[in-house]
Specification:
- The chain contains 2 helices and 27 strands.
- The strands form 7 sheets. Strands 10, 11, 12, 14 and 15 form a 5-stranded antiparallel β-sheet that branches. The protein has a 4-stranded antiparallel β-sheet with strand order 1-27-26-25.
- It has helices spanning 2-8, 353-358, and strands at 30-35, 44-52, 58-65, 73-80, 91-95, 100-108, 114-121, 129-136, 147-150, 155-157, 162-163, 169-175, 183-184, 189-196, 201-204, 214-223, 226-233, 235-236, 244-250, 261-266, 273-276, 282-287, 296-301, 310-315, 321-328, 334-340, 345-351.
């Protein structure tokens, strides 16, 4: 499977990591297949999320088990220690003995506290979900007991928080309506949970509404109190010629949002990521298609999202590439996690801004 996937991801730019792979050079892309069906956590692995911890380790979580709607599921975690080339075997870090556990998000706050946000489904569809959390004070080595974060039915989490200019946090969450496993209702909407670092309390913001619904928002504070958010469009997976990422703005620090409108970017009813890089440039990761989760594309903006002069495909081929999450690491690289092969494989890509702008040499380190 690994050889097959490499041949489908931008032949000429696809580089697989291995234990003997040398350091990444400027202008290169490398992709590593982390976990597949052979991992004993179950065949299902979707979505996966990534964070760089303050000690330099990379930590990945994913929702895994027998299937999306199975009850024997959990959130699993794996670590790549700083200086190592080998990820630890995935271990169970969150589960519920009676209910299905869903999307997990790992994030380390500026104070060093590591948060694990995750979904627990109480009924047959995700419209019955709530959000729970755990925290770690030792860089995700051990975890607290679970505690409820959002008790309203239908609430879910998918993307990591951002830190606002005043030090407060903004956690993207969303309400998924419709009670339908193959479509989201028009009442589906993104919103955020605002964390006051002084009061140590979470409060919901106003919703982000759009004509056909939206879910899984992700935002960047472009300047003080002015935020831009992109959201996965609502609806079904039926073929369409009108599938676009939803875009909205906030001028009050994310407390209220403009009506969500179609952006210039295509969206096949799939998750996206949107972050500020250490250079100040903005990075958008999305599927550049209205109907398929391929290709998986990155776009770069140097002017706060007004223009996007650079765009490049990370993965392109017959497989589905979904739920991307990017993290800019201290060494100037971008680490991107995503799933493929019908939600059975977790992949890890590494690149830099130079690769997005110029591309790079064709190199490959395939295991024998």
């Amino acid at each position: 499977m690994k050889d097959i996937l490499c041949k489908t991801v931008l032949l000429g730019s696809c580089l697989w990591l291995s234990a003997t792979t040398p350091l990444l050079h400027a202008g290169e892309l490398r992709i590593e297949r982390l976990f597949g069906p052979e991992i004993k956590t179950g065949p299902y692995k979707h979505p996966a999320r990534i964070e760089e911890l303050r000690n330099g380790d990379l930590y990945v979580v994913y929702y895994g088990g027998e299937g999306e709607y199975a009850t024997s599921t959990g959130v699993f975690g794996s670590r790549l220690k700083k200086g190592s080339h080998k990820w630890t075997p995935p271990t169970l870090i969150a589960h519920d003995p009676f209910r299905s556990v869903g999307n997990g998000v790992i994030w380390q706050a500026p104070d060093g506290l590591v948060w694990l946000f995750y979904v627990v489904r109480y009924g047959e569809t995700w419209s019955t979900s709530r959000v729970q959390a755990k925290v770690s004070r030792d860089n995700a080595e051990t975890w607290s007991d679970a505690f409820p974060l959002v008790s309203e039915e239908g609430m879910m989490v998918c993307n990591k928080p951002i830190v606002l200019h005043n030090g407060d946090y903004l956690l993207p969450i969303y309400f998924e309506g419709g009670n339908n496993p193959e479509a989201t209702g028009a009442d589906s909407r993104g919103l955020f949970f605002h964390y006051d670092v002084k009061k140590k309390e979470w409060k919901p913001t106003g919703p982000l509404r759009s004509a056909t619904g939206n879910i899984q928002p992700v935002a960047v504070e472009v300047r003080d109190n002015f935020l831009v958010a992109y959201c996965r469009r609502g609806g079904s997976y039926e073929p369409t010629t009108n599938g676009w990422l939803v875009r909205a703005e906030s001028s009050d620090g994310g407390w209220t949002w403009s009506e969500g409108v179609n952006s210039q970017f295509k969206n096949p009813n799939a998750a996206v990521d949107f972050i500020r890089l250490r250079s100040g440039n903005l990075l958008l990761v999305f599927n550049d298609s209205m109907n398929d989760r391929t290709p998986l594309t990155v776009a770069l903006s140097p002017d706060g999202g007004q223009t996007w002069p650079w765009q490049r495909n990370v993965a392109d081929g017959a497989y589905d590439y979904g739920y991307p999450m990017a993290v800019p690491t201290r060494d100037g690289k971008v680490h991107l996690i995503f799933t493929s092969h019908e939600r059975a494989v977790v992949n890890h890509a590494v690149f830099d801004e130079e690769w997005i702008k110029q591309g790079g040499p064709a190199r490959s380190w395939l295991p024998k």
